[in-house]
Amino acid sequence: MERKDFTIESQFDGLEIKVVMMVPDTPIRGVVQFVHGMAEHKERYFDFMKYLAAAGFVTVIHDHRGHGESLRSQEDLGFFYDAEGIAVVEDVHQIVLAVQEQFPQKPYILFGHSMGSLIARCYAKKYDNHLDKLILCGSPSKNSLVPIALWLTRQIEKKKGDRYRSKLLQKLALGPFERVGERGFPNSWLCCNQEVVEEYNQNPLCGFNFTVNGYQNLFNLLKETYSSKGWSCEKPDLPIYFVAGAADPVIRSPKAWQKAQSFMRKLGYTRVEGKLFDGLRHEILNELDRSPIFSDLLKWMMS
């Protein structure tokens, strides 16, 4: 396997986006591009990327704007340089086009986790004809409070500016998740693997509070994901796979998670399926026994 690190200059605003690609030594089956979640970074997906590369898949991931190494300064963690949730989607498309040019005619799979699943669906909304499969992991369900949250971010922005870090917005967005997991162990809702959670809590590139601008992006992505307007649905037979831990608070409930799948079917997608993993939380790729998860996802990718 060969690892390639490179930078793309975003066509949206010139921001340097850091990308990592892993290319197998064996014949290439296809390409899997990862779209990571909120307040984390690309390196957290390397284990699964290596696993897929060993099975013949080129794997690609980038740090979202305002995350990891895709920053103009360290003070910009959680700042997207755009308020509408558009740039973060267009960055994904720019990478898709670049990778598809390098590996033409290979099946292309987009894998979005958590906030990344919102970005991935907003991507499919415009560009589903560029994809062969779509995996949505730990996907946030529809939330009726999004319009209120957007109104609140605008009020806070007027008073404090778009770079302000609001504890109120953080509590609104993430507070309910802390009901899951071990008491006194911050972010244990992420997974049952305490070692992973401890590493997350100690890493300055993880778990940081978004700026007001970052929450504007998050809430706009939620709004756009669950709006029935604007879907091209050029590829109604696109296989879509929802996966999540049954104890994941981000999906809100199995019923809400099922509704997200039903929504995609109502839009016209005919090959939507899902699987819940009993006892697991939000980051199923980081749970104590990941091997069944890895195996299940690989099997679906190869089907």
Question: Explain this structure to me?
Answer:
- The protein is α/β, with parallel strands linked by helices.
- It has nine helices and eight strands.
- An eight-stranded mixed β-sheet has the order 1-2-4-3-5-6-7-8, sandwiched between helices.
- Helix 3 packs across helix 7.
- The two termini are 23 Å apart.
- The mean pLDDT is 97.
Quick structural overview:
By secondary structure, this protein is of the alpha/beta class. The chain has 9 helices and 8 strands.
What do the pLDDT scores average to?
97
Largest sheet: 8 strands, mixed
Our Rg estimate from Cα atoms comes to 18 Å
Counted by DSSP, the helix tally is: 9
- The share of residues in extended strands comes to 15-25%
Structural class: alpha/beta
Low-confidence spans: none
What is the CA–CA distance across the termini?
23 Å
* Count of individual beta strands: 8
Order of strands across the widest beta sheet?
1-2-4-3-5-6-7-8
